[in-house]
Input
Amino acid sequence: MPFIKQKFHIKYPIKATLFLQQNLHLSQKDAQRIIDKGRIFINDKSFKEKAGILFGDIWINRFRAEDLGIKPIFKTKDFVVFDKPPKLLVHPKGRFYHLSLLDSIKFYFGDNANPINRLDFETSGILLVSLNKQSEIILKKSFEKREVKKIYLALVYGKIGDCVIDLNILEQNKKKDLGIRSIVSPNGKKAITKIEAIKYNQTHNTTLIKAYPITGRTHQIRVHLNHIGHRIVGECLYGVDDTHTRDYLNKTFDEKKRKEIFGADRLMLHSKQIEFIYKNTRFIISSNMDFENGI
Output
C-alpha cells in the first residue's frame, strides 16, 4: 500500500509550500509537486492552491515504500541499476494503492532516489536510478543529450533484416479513447530506431532482434516495429483490435485469454544493456534476466 493518508493539525496559518518544506523536509519544487498532484486534503476536498494557506486539520497522501524483495544488480554511491520484472509499474499511478518498483527503490535508498529512464509496465530489464539530486541532474542530462546507449531485445512477428527506422512519433491526448497509443506522424518528434536481426524462427515465423533506440519517444520501439509490419509478440496496444486493447486496459480477461489473443503472456520486449559515461568513467551494465531462453 504505497500511499497512506496522514493527518496533521496546524495551529497557526502557514503557507502550504512552507509547511511541506518544514514538516516533510521537501524541497520547494517537491512541495509544489505535492500540491499540484492534489495530495493535500481539507474536509475530504483536494487542496491545489499554489499560494494557499493551511490551517487546522489537514490530510496528506504520502508515499510509503514497501519491500518487494527486488534489489539492484549494480551499485555505486551515486546511482544503482535494477533489473525490472515484466508486469510491474516503475511509478504508482495517481493515488492508487498498488505496488511499483518505486517501492523497492525508496525502501532501500530513501526519498532522494529516483528512476532516470522509463520502462513500460510490461517491459523488463535495466532501470537506472539516481541516489541524490546531483547524480539525477547529471544522468538526466546524459539522456537528454543522447549520450546513453541502450540495447533492447524483442521477439517480433515475421522475418526482418537489419534496418534503421526513421519515422516521427506523435503522442496523443491520453484522456481520449485509446489515447495511450502514440502514432507515426510527420507532425511528431524525431524518432530513430536501429534494428539488428539475431535469429529467425521459421516454425513460428518470428525473429529475435536487437533494437537500439537513438531517440527516446514514448513506446518508440513498439510503434516503429508495428508500423513496418513487425509487431512485437505479446503486443497489446499496437497492431491489434481496438476492442481487445480496451479489454486489456480494463483488465477484463485472464492470462490465458491474453496469451491466446496477443501471442504471449507478456510483451516480448526487454531492456538488455545500458552504456554511459559518469564522471569520466564508462559504465556498461547488462541485465541478468535470461530473456532469450526458450525463444
